[in-house]
Design goal:
This protein is of the alpha/beta class. The protein contains 18 helices and 24 strands.
Length: 538
């Protein structure tokens, strides 16, 4: 008898969610994590000074709280200490002239902020919200995906369904400029596409802009009390309470394959762990094919697709411990807002993305300023300040600096480049927060090279699991010759940001695969369907 029913490689939110759902269904589950913490890109630690709890990588949980996994597991996780906090001021954009625009938790307030077009956006979106969110929660290359398409055709007709699909392919720029007259509205919403791995001029970014805007209005910007790691802690405890095993410092180097079927894994120390029913790997295509399946012959198109898989823009994190709370210039609500984007607006985001994709450090990259203390005062000592900064428009290989100044040479990231760019960001941010530089107790910056070193799935410092250009997105994620989550090796499944529905803490891929594994066999489903039809006609 095998050691476990399922072995899961990695412990990010998709892995832990998949394991929790399987363990609750009485599967014998083993989660193996190569790092010394559970959570993947979820990590909370006193990175700067004692008493300052920083979410080192990801920090904000609206996708999780609004997702299917939370709906199913939320009560059990709350019983294990997970508590979410929220705010009425989820996000804003601070512009160079000192003005600001806010996305609020009310439709009426957002009509004032975004303009009179906002109610029409909601009237257009909500009747088909189940289709939009269904796309983001369904294995598209599957019978479930076909069923969702059929539902759209039945409701909208063929022409209407095609129009829905066409609208979903719009860029954020096209949608924003044809929907809102106000450039402030453009600047408020455009930065959010960066959080999906897209730029505002890319296909499907308009769809994602709409989804995020509605989701933030309806769900806010929740965070766990005490740090994001509380989610990982609660999931691990849930798995263990149902008999599962979760272990850190366990580095998987190979998937064991016999007769074309995954039967377990081998660790770097030589230990083998067998799986009776499934091996689930939360990895990039590079990790899957160049490492875990290095000894396995896969079809040539799949091997070539993995080789050609592209990673997206790099990212950077900056963490501040402050002697006092930040005092923003301009609108007093900025000091109470969870996430503030600092950018010139839509064109500023577009320009920074373009510069990064040409290998340049952007002159005015978008600054994502997270203020977790606006929700959770436990993150820092009383009277202190804490900032979480993310920069999402960076190249992996530096060809030049669009901002000029000291040139430190072409090539990959170094600590010198990291600090050089962090200084630029700090100087820009200080124009909006006059007391920033005088209140810094400690700054810790993590460049793309630091992110890759910390987590092998953050390849090239890309936190989104690979480029989300159309040929690596939706039906074609991770890539065209290997779409979906079932690999060409029987009983081996791939999950994580590199698979549909892509990046974020929604745990979509982990939920999809767990539900697939828990489905009754096809023959059993056919019998049940036949009995249902017979009962209907009897």
């Amino acid at each position: 008898m095998a050691d476990f029913d399922a072995v899961i490689v990695g412990s990010g939110v998709n892995s832990l969610t998949c394991a929790a759902l399987l363990a609750r269904a009485e599967w014998r589950v083993c989660v193996l994590e190569r790092n010394d913490w559970f959570g993947g890109a979820i990590k909370t630690e006193e990175l700067t000074e004692a008493g300052f709890l920083h979410d080192v990588f990801s920090a904000w949980h609206p996708l999780w709280v609004g997702g299917a996994a939370h709906a199913e597991l939320g009560d059990e996780l709350a019983a294990r200490g997970l508590e979410y906090l929220n705010t009425e001021l989820p996000t804003a954009t601070a512009f160079p002239d000192g003005s600001a625009a806010f996305l609020l938790r009310s439709a009426e307030g957002n009509a004032e902020e975004l303009g009179p077009e906002w109610p029409g956006v909601l009237e257009h979106f909500f009747p088909n919200a189940d289709l939009a969110f269904g796309v983001l929660g369904t294995e598209l290359w599957s019978p479930a995906g076909l069923a969702l398409a059929a539902k759209a055709v039945r409701r909208l007709g063929r022409a209407g369904a095609l129009a829905f699909l066409g609208e979903a392919l719009q860029s954020s720029r096209d949608w924003l400029e044809t929907t809102f007259a106000s450039e402030r509205a453009h600047g408020l919403l455009a930065p959010w596409v960066l959080h999906t791995g897209l730029g505002p001029d890319q296909a499907t970014s308009g769809f994602m802009t709409q989804v995020i805007a509605v989701a933030v209005q309806e769900g806010g910007m929740p965070v766990p009390r005490g740090g994001g790691a509380k989610l990982a802690d609660a999931l691990v405890q849930l798995i263990r309470d149902h008999g599962g095993v979760c272990e850190t410092d366990r580095d998987v180097e190979r998937v064991l394959v016999r007769s074309g079927r995954a039967v377990g894994v081998r660790l770097t120390d030589g230990e083998t762990i067998e799986a009776e029913r499934a091996v689930v790997a939360s990895v990039t295509p590079t990790q899957l094919h160049e490492r875990l399946l290095a000894d396995v012959d896969v079809p040539a198109p799949v091997a070539e697709g993995a080789r050609r898989f592209r990673y997206g823009r790099s990212a950077m994190q900056i963490h501040y411990a402050l002697s006092e709370p930040p005092r923003w210039d301009g609108d007093e609500r900025l000091a109470r807002t969870a996430i503030v984007h600092v950018t010139p607006g839509l064109d500023g985001v577009s320009r920074a993305v373009n510069e990064a994709e040409r290998g340049l450090l952007p002159d005015e990259g978008t600054i994502v300023v997270g203020q977790p203390l606006t929700l959770d005062s436990s993150r820092a000592p009383d009277g202190r300040g804490l900032l979480w900064i993310q920069l999402q428009e960076l190249p992996w290989r530096i060809k030049g600096d669009a901002g000029g100044g000291t040139y430190l040479g072409r090539g990959e990231w170094t600590d010198a480049w990291r600090e050089h760019y962090a200084d630029r960001i700090q100087a820009r941010l200080a124009r909006h927060i006059p007391n920033l530089e005088s209140s810094i107790l400690k700054r810790v910056a993590l460049g793309p090279h630091d992110l890759q070193r910390a987590n092998v799935n953050l390849r090239h410092g890309d936190p989104y699991g690979g480029s989300l250009a159309l040929d690596q997105n939706f039906l074609w994620r991770p890539f065209g010759s290997s779409p979906g989550h079932a690999t060409r090796v029987e009983r081996l499944w791939q999950i994580g940001a590199s698979t549909w529905p892509g990046p974020g803490l929604g745990a979509g891929s982990g939920t999809i695969v767990a539900r697939k594994l828990l489905e009754p066999p096809l023959s059993q489903r056919a019998v049940a369907r036949a009995r249902s039809l017979a009962a209907r006609w009897s």
